[in-house]
Amino acid sequence: MRLPIETFGYQYAIGGYHAVLSGFLLQFLALTIMAAIPRSSKAVRTRLEFVLGLTVPLALCCHAWVFPLQAALVGAWTLWDRRNSGHWHLLAPAAGAAAGVLLLLPFLAGLGAGAGYMQVALVTSDAHAPIVQFLIVWWPLLVLAFAVPLAGQARSFAGFLTLLFLALLIFVEFFSAPDGLYRDDFIRFNPSLKWWGWIYTGGVFSISAALLAGMSRVGRIAAASVLVLISVFAVDAGRCLVFRSHAFAGKIDGTSFYAQDRSNGRMLRYLTDAPPGIVLEKIHEDFPSDTGIYGSFAQKPNLVGLPYALGVWKKELPELPALVAKIDSFYAGTFLDAARFLTDHDVRYVVWSIRESKDIDAWKSIMQAIDTDYRWMEFSTTPKTHIGLWIRRWPPRYGVVAEPRS
Questions:
Q1: Contact at 8 Å (CB) between 360 and 376?
Q2: pLDDT (0 to 100) of residue 289
Q3: pTM for the whole thing?
Q4: How far apart are CA 153 and CA 104, in angstroms?
């Protein structure tokens, strides 16, 4: 079985601009609130519990994979705290959760329509993690969990965290959520990738902190030993930081890679500043894909985004294969009525990026087919290399579309 894990340390070291990081942020925020509430006044506690409840629906739009784990964390702590205190006031966390749902209703409606095919399923006997490899990955959490009762903290916050993260670990070893993208020996790929990392990071982070803050010397030594041993990952992380390229250091908007070529960068910047309009880009089949990047970075809608992702969230799109085939034909320069195709779909910008720049024959065919309706804007200064945009002329010959806004 292919069972990967993405921890916070891994994502942080590689500079991953990824939804996983926002999932960790919500997890750390919730754990911090749980630790702070017992030391807070009633007024502050109410505000903290509101934010705690808010983290649950926020997980859906930040990192939907960890939503059930975030809900389990907040829900279990709420029950544990109320049982210990005897005060069953749930208005503040419920209000926070309700506020999040209300604010996210438009997003949740779209997410629900696309995620209905995902179902929790039992992990088959041949898909379980091999015991040796399982222990190699999970020994830090298991050692910390064993140290909690030895430190006399079984009935404390540390004991609650231990039971919770062990229960979640057992749950994800026996239950999975196949997403339809991966099959065979990859069937648990996404659930283990997302769930394991969240459980490992949160469990080690919170239980070790609770042990270090405790009065037991045994607990403090156990926690410190585990943290020191797993911190040897700093060697690999350091090597990555020292020896990898730093060409894009500090540039987190994601465009720097595509702006390495100055002509391509000028085209992207122009498109970003241009008036609103639908963007057409060539569809690349390689994965991860460059499809849809220019419209996305320019904050403009793409005629077709990433078919791979659309196949996940919009499974009932019978028109998609035909549309993708037309776009392929268009960029090959073989589409018979290219201008009519573009104006019928209200395309305002057609991207010809550095990846297409060497296909001179296709560029000439497209230019000949749509020049009456779309003017060419060149950004390349290299002979026989075209990088630029076709921009719709006004008014179009075909279709009835709204006048473009300036």
A1: no
A2: 73
A3: 0.79
A4: 39
